[in-house]
Write a structure and sequence with these properties.
The protein is of the alpha/beta class and 400 residues long. Helices cover 37% and strands 22% of the residues. Helix 8 packs across helix 9 and helix 8 crosses helix 14.
Amino acid sequence: MEYDHILIRYGELALKGKNRKKFVEKLQQNVQQKLTEFPDVKVKRTQGRMFILLNGNDPQPIMDKVRNVFGIHSLSLAIKVENDLEKMKEAAYYALTNAEKSKTFKVTVKRINKGFPVRSQELNQILGGYLLSNTNSYTVNVHSPDVEVRVEIRAEATYITSSVVRGAGGLPVGTSDKTLLLLSGGIDSPVAGYLAMKRGVQIEAIHFESPPFTSDRAKQKVLDLAEKLTKFGPSIKVHVVPFTKLQQRIFQETPDGYGMTVMRRMMLRISEKVCQNEGILSLTTGENLGQVASQTMTSMNTINEVTNYPIIRPLVTMDKDEIIEISKAIDTFDISIRPYEDCCTIFVPKAPKTKPKRDRVNYYESKFNYEELIKEAIDGIEVIKINDKKVEEDVFEGLF
């Protein structure tokens, strides 16, 4: 006997009412997509549960892949047996004796199949007594056991587990449409992308590069961050914008204190055009209220003027320590701190305005023809698709 299934439990999905089926179907699709390298592994679902059929595969690498899929509350290795009492005893014994560092246990029976002749409480006692009689080093602890042997009796079979692994939580990626993540290469933006994905949002990314002021290593840093985010969802398209010419013109034509504000507005204008072409409904940024001059309330108000698209800011109220903690947990921190500058750091004004006025910014923008420069930048966009360490490149066709 051995574990032959992984049992998947839903969390927030269970509360979705009439829309639940759509969410569960998307979760099943996302789980199966994560397991393409295991062609024999199948994903099926029954009422209130989803199961992965291992078909002889080592469960650990499969568990490692699936635990990062948003929408899963928890997972357990499971043994599937017939709805037969003797088979249940055998499987419960295996589940208990193969659990790590266990001295105490309890049995919890959930009888979804009410046609099974033995009631849950009685079956708790029968299985618990059997385990005590056939082992020497275990005792029962119903309040805080080392191992909880769970028995789920369903119509088609009984599933027995003894350990619970926490899942990623949230909603399945793809159930909340798509956003365009402004991915700079710093600590904040990949964390913002991760948190957006946790709410079911599928992401594409946009990155602004300014060669020769920014290097190929800075670009690679961003692609590596995007690859890390694919652990939690599907492939990610990264739109790399050649920003040098427009950025230089901004800082030539704009007073020093307003250059950063104008630059951010140009980024939003370009990002909005990409959204329109890709059918994307929102933008996501790593902005954090008050962290830098461009992230004051006044700055956000002035910068937001150029777009009607919703801007999702998952980090807006977080402390920096909280953001760093998440970045370490999702394994982006070490990439983010690589010492390669992005376009937001190479032209930093000495004294950027913390309360830039809309009328002043509009006046400075009217002094030069930025529309042509935006068109040129969009025409030169390079699209790179990141998917399980495979990179595909394309050239974005102009929108004008």
